[in-house]
Write a structure and sequence with these properties.
The complex is a heterodimer. Chain A is an alpha/beta fold. Chain A is built from 22 helices and 29 strands. In chain A, a hairpin with a 2-residue loop joins strand 18 and strand 19. In chain A, helix 1 crosses helix 8, helix 2 packs across helix 7 and helix 10 packs across helix 12. The longest helix of chain A is centred in the middle third of the chain and has 20 residues. Chain A is elongated, with a radius of gyration of 29 Å. The two termini of chain A are 44 Å apart. About 4% of the residues of chain A have low confidence. Chain B has a single domain, classed as Jelly Rolls (Sandwich). Helix content of chain B is 29%, strand content 27%. Classes of the chains: A alpha/beta, B alpha+beta.
């Protein structure tokens, strides 16, 4: 059946004799492109820049098993001994060429005159042609197109590389035992995403074009038609590969089945074996998480930031302020990786994050096989329907999987490319100490976007020589912003010690603001713990400015000690003006005559129902969950209880992956969420 | 802002409330008054009506005191009046002019032994007070607002 369907696709296919591969490569070179293809290196096949066809892995074949990849020479009398691509997908895939492991991102410098200069590095790309990409590689490319170029923020380096990429794909003639693209509906037939598709047959290649650029390339080679015999052989060959692979993963309903088993004991069992070495994420063609690495010159005047591959398996990946990690255990990290690939990826990007290439299986040093783990954790598909063989679905379109409930997460306001990624400078006009370790910087800027910031949003703040932290906006003034910063690490310590006149580079405003309109006509409760008052201060400003729109306004403040309270004079003045502000501290000396005790004590004994309350809560997560419990006891609706979450944010725009929480990127989809939106994820450890 | 005066004892049934009233007298303390002293007998179980009472512990070898928690209107003060050995575990100091309803400790213990209905209603309130102090202390032990050791930035 597949064979019948494939004939129309192959109509007009030409024959490229193996001896003319160099003509193809030459034409690509003549087009100003570097050419990348598979080569044998260090006992494996990787994609590397090549000059001529002879560098391709002619005569090599490969076998793979969990934790094992072996190359071997075909015997001279093997019919396939003269073939270049009959050896499975290259371990590197094409990702290093479209999304390199290290890219210059930003330079921040203090100029001679003392002003701050920020340069976002322009993509420095060379037009590239890839020969030998497989169906799984193209499916992964389509996934990256959505993640890196289809969201509200676009990775400029990826977009530039992608625009200049020409792909000569090869249909697989060999499936290793770790391949399972048939299960994921991505191969082995190349259906979309290539400019030219080759099928390697005796003596050469059946070649067809799948884009205008591909057609120009083939037309320029002046090739003869392939003819039905060769086309038939090509079709039969890839069909055999499909049949050999079988149906190793039951993709139907996998999203729901996996997410229903977040507490499976199997996660701990895998963790006994998993080394958290990150190999699987490095060879995965869709893994896109990156970290920012700052390098500084010795005098601290200039530093550069590079975007580098990162992995959710590393200890520091989900580490946040204070050194704690949201995924401290190997089991947490494996669960994150697997549930993201096969479940929450759907929610975020409308497709699976796995293309079935099997590299993670082959290159896992302890041989963990995702196919086996998925079966053990997610169980069989819950359906009475016979499992249909996956169609050769175009990789760029979402694969409809029956029984999958996709959560609509993408904020509607965020159009593709709508988040800016440039920096603007702002000048510090005042530094106001709040506590021993916290200061408020008053900044002046003329940037219209920053001035249009809304309470609850944050900015990425860059200064030379330091990491670039996300800082929440604590006030929006007509001429600038205020940032309240606690000195907890080198960058934030530096920022709290700045003097008026200093410049900062800001990127933003970022994130979803507090939904103040949700409280119109209702009772407002603002609950802040510690530094959590900073992102709520701008909200309080706005609530007071629109005071008549709310039934009542109450503010509850918690701090560690009286000396750790923020904005003391400001809050005292508001209380003196009649605003209902209740404060408590966790401990105090005898000089403190106010309330002592945890913040939930303040309203625990409230008698009135909270059904008309909209609550805005910010503080340490442990405090927020305690507050949410008490608010729930008081009948404050979950959809009217708003939190701002803390996660590690590196890019701030949903591209780097660090702040993922289930189907959300906290930086982009939050950081403000309602308790109803978060559901069980609020309390689930290790997510 | 007016403070609505409520007593923790309002949650008792009218009958029990009436029987308890025989043992109860209103008391007022000026700011700064020491109501309970750590290690001494607890003279009464109190229901705060108005004001604020700080529960303080002496910091070893420093002589000064730290306020662990404050007891506010609507809450009970002096659970140790009904829990052996009936000695206060903290100093209780009024930080504001404070009014409370004081139930005599000895008489209350006698009544609890004799009046099962009263015991069944009152003791859960006392337990709730102990439970709140305990869970509050645990959260304070977490020191979640506290200084952090290290941040990546």
């Amino acid at each position: 059946m597949v064979i019948e369907n494939r004939w129309p696709v192959m109509a007009g296919a030409r024959f490229l004799p193996v001896g003319r591969l160099d003509d193809l490569i030459g034409a690509l070179h003549a087009d100003g492109r570097r050419v990348v293809g598979p080569v044998v290196e260090d006992g494996g096949i990787k994609m590397a820049e090549i000059e001529r066809a002879a560098e391709l892995p002619f005569g090599w074949t490969a076998s793979a098993a969990p934790g094992l990849v072996r190359l071997s020479r075909r015997p001279a009398n093997d019919r396939a001994a003269g073939r270049a691509f009959d050896n499975g997908p290259a371990w590197s895939g094409i990702k290093p060429w479209t999304f390199p492991s290290r890219v210059d991102a930003l330079t921040v410098e203090t100029r001679e005159d003392g002003s701050l200069g920020v340069r976002v590095e322009a993509p420095a790309n060379q037009p590239t042609a890839v020969i030998g990409a497989r169906a799984c590689d193209l499916a992964a490319l389509a996934v990256h197109d959505r993640v890196l170029a289809g969201g509200p923020a676009i990775d400029p380096d990826y977009a530039a590389r992608r625009a200049d990429l020409l792909v000569v794909a090869v249909e697989c003639a060999l499936a290793t035992s770790t391949c399972f693209c048939t299960s994921m509906g991505t191969g082995p037939e190349v259906t979309t995403g290539a400019d030219v598709v080759l099928a390697e047959v005796d003596g050469g290649f059946v070649a067809r074009s799948d884009s205008p650029a591909g057609e120009r390339l083939l037309a320029g080679l002046d090739l003869a038609e392939a003819g039905p015999l060769r086309v038939g052989a090509a079709i039969e060959q890839v069909t055999k590969v499909r049949d050999a692979m079988g149906h190793a993963v039951e993709a139907e309903g996998l999203h729901d089945r996996l997410l229903a088993n977040l507490d499976s004991p199997r996660w701990e069992a895998i963790a006994e074996r998993c080394l958290a070495c990150a190999n699987c994420t490095l060879v995965c063609p869709t893994c896109f998480c990156t970290g920012t690495v700052i390098e500084s010159d010795l005098d601290g005047r200039e530093s550069s930031a590079t975007r580098q591959w990162d992995s959710c398996f590393t200890a520091g990946f989900a580490q946040v302020a204070g050194g704690g990690s949201f995924r401290p255990h190997h089991a947490d990290r494996y669960r994150q990786w697997l549930t993201h690939k096969f479940a929450t990826w759907w929610d975020q990007f409308g497709s699976s994050g796995c293309v079935g290439c099997g590299r993670c299986i082959a290159w896992c040093p302890v041989g963990i096989d995702v196919r086996e783990e998925l079966a053990a954790i997610a169980g069989p598909a819950i359906t009475d329907l016979p499992a249909a063989a996956p169609a050769t679905t175009p990789a760029a379109a979402p694969i409809a999987v029956k029984g999958t409930r996709i959560l609509a997460m993408a904020p509607t306001a965020l159009q593709p490319g709508s988040i800016r990624t440039d920096y603007v400078t702002a000048t510090v006009t005042e530094v106001r100490p709040e506590t021993a370790d916290t200061a408020t910087l008053r900044l002046v800027t003329g940037d219209a976007a920053l001035l249009a910031a809304r309470p609850g949003q944050f900015v990425m703040v860059a200064v030379p020589a330091f990491a670039i932290p996300p800082i929440s906006i604590s006030r929006i003034n007509p001429d600038g912003l205020e940032l309240t910063i606690r000195a907890a690490g080198p960058a934030t310590s530096f920022m709290t010690r700045l003097r008026p006149g200093a410049e900062l580079a800001l990127r933003g405003p970022l994130g979803r603001p507090w939904p103040i309109e949700d409280a119109y006509g209702r009772d407002v409760a603002i609950v802040a713990g510690g530094i959590g008052l900073a992102p709520l201060r701008g909200l309080l400003d706005q609530v007071l400015a629109e005071r008549d729109r709310f039934s009542s306004i109450r503010v509850y403040l918690g701090a560690r000690t009286p000396r750790d309270r923020l904005f003391v004079a400001e809050m005292d003045a508001l209380a003196a003006g009649g605003l209902d502000i209740r404060a408590t501290v966790d401990r105090a000396g005898p000089e403190w005559l106010g309330r002592v005790g945890i913040i939930t004590d303040i309203f625990r004994n409230a008698k009135a129902t909270g059904q008309n309350v909209t609550a805005f809560v910010c503080g340490p997560e442990r405090m927020m969950t305690a507050v949410v419990d008490v608010l729930g006891d008081l009948d404050v609706p979950r959809e009217h209880t708003w939190l701002t979450l803390e996660r590690r944010m590196e890019c701030g725009v949903g591209l780097c992956g660090h702040c993922q929480l289930g189907s959300r990127f906290v930086c982009r989809d939050g950081p403000v969420f309602s308790v109803a939106e978060l559901g069980d994820d609020l309390r689930r450890e290790g997510l | 802002m007016t403070t609505r005066i409520t007593s923790a004892l309002d949650r008792l049934s009218p009958a029990v409330h009436a029987r308890l009233a025989e043992l109860t007298r209103p008391v007022a303390y000026p700011a700064g008054a020491v109501i309970l002293r750590e290690g001494t007998d607890t003279p009464f179980l109190g229901a705060i009506l108005e004001g604020r009472v700080a529960l303080r512990l002496r910091v070893p070898e420093r002589g000064d005191r730290v306020t662990i928690v404050t007891v506010e209107p609507g809450e009970l003060l002096g659970w140790s009046a009904v829990v052996a050995p009936y000695r206060a575990t903290v100093d209780a100091v009024a930080t504001e002019p404070t009014r409370l309803l004081a139930i005599d400790a000895v008489a209350l213990r006698d009544r609890l032994a004799a009046d099962c209905e009263l015991a069944a209603e009152l003791l859960p309130l006392v337990l709730e007070s102990v439970s709140d102090r305990l869970s509050g202390s645990w959260q304070q032990l977490l020191d979640m607002f506290g200084a952090r050791v290290h941040e990546p930035w």
